[in-house]
Amino acid sequence: MELKLYNDPIHGHIHLDPMTVSIMDTVHFQRLRDLKQLGVCYYVFPGACHNRFEHSVGVSYLANNMVSFLQQSQPLLDLTSNEISCVKLAGLCHDLGHGPFSHAYDNEFLPRASPGLNWSHEDGSQSLFNDLIDRYYIDIDPQDHKLILKLIDGNSKSSDMERGFLYDVVANKRNSVDVDKFDYITRDCYYSGIKSSYDSNRLLKCSRVIGNEICFHAKEAYNVYEMFHTRYSLFKRVYTHRVSKGLEYMIIDAMLAADPVMRISKAMEDPMEYVYLTDGILREIERSKNPKLSESQKILKRFRERDIYKFVDEYFYPAEQGSKIKKSIQLEEKIAQDIVSFQTDNSNINNNDVIVEIQKINYAMKDKNPVDKIHFYSKYDEDTPISINKEHVSSLIPNKMEETICRVFTRDSAKVKQVQEAFRRYVQKNTHYYKEETEKIYNESLTIPHGYEASPRKKNLSLNSSPINKKRKIPFDINK
User: Which residues are catalytic?
Assistant: First the structure.
């Protein structure tokens, strides 16, 4: 069997078997080259230029490594070559269904464009995988085909299923430790410049199947916590960066304005239409001569010229209150309307000026500690699963596993101060804090100084004068 050699900056040289190559050499898989792994974050972190393509190859590689290691270290598992191949292909194809700008498509755009639609990128991955197999006449056993689809979707009750440990490898919905995270955490840190001390290869080499689930050596408990904390850091510092989010909302607005013409929200209904929906949708909109796209084009012009929707302020909910809040577009829009109602008479804020984001950042299992659902084994007894209390790992591990934040942005950079004042009045009215304690609940570094008047960034586009030769007064920018 001839193997192709693929060079990856994270994992080094990877050997690709003919089945893997046959799936990669399709329009369905090559589409992933045109989907940025971190979506809009690339416009803030220019090093984060990696795509879903290389991440998918990396996940396939790690999936193969994990099941091959288990096969070698535990021959009694009787892992078949077909099972190993299925897990590897599930890793390869698990992200086929992502839309433009990754999670922005299914988490932000579709709920606004098609309210009530129950669709996820995993659904898209299964749909595209089915179409890929049929369209390219891939020779695959029907039972293996079904297993791959199930492995892509994952199952939270995997330990109760026959060969359930296989579901722990790619999309672990039981405790969230899987090779998908192994790859994207390492890869995203590498390309965004975030430092991390967690070691995914060590976790992989310390894995063992006990009682139909993948467990890890007890000495790796801290490494597991380090993985989840690194993921939290990526969300906090990169994925939800306030400028990235402002840019993302601009893209969402542009796609919503273009949707009646471009059918962006309907593309995933037809696999052969969806394979051509990528991050390149912005350029398609921009170069169109259709007058119905003028509103979308205006937004994208602002996007290209960095006239970004401005971050205004944020409020951290107390943990007890935050755990009861369920993020939804409807709730965010309701809060935005409430903020507008708290404006002063001369603020002139309207509903279109305010964007609210309910942000939840956690250790991948909402407000639960994922390590409580992970079993370990001791070097003295490798066949008995044990739980490890976090106090036995470190006294510095957090007691709260999720934070809930209300963040506010504005589409009009001239109204930043007015929106902030309205938001702070809203918070005073809707929290248990007394009025005189207001200053304690805000980040003082975000307080806009009195007399501050933001103005939209203006550019002199005249061919007769160069902005390089003119000194411009840059207004104070709270995003910097």
Answer: 121
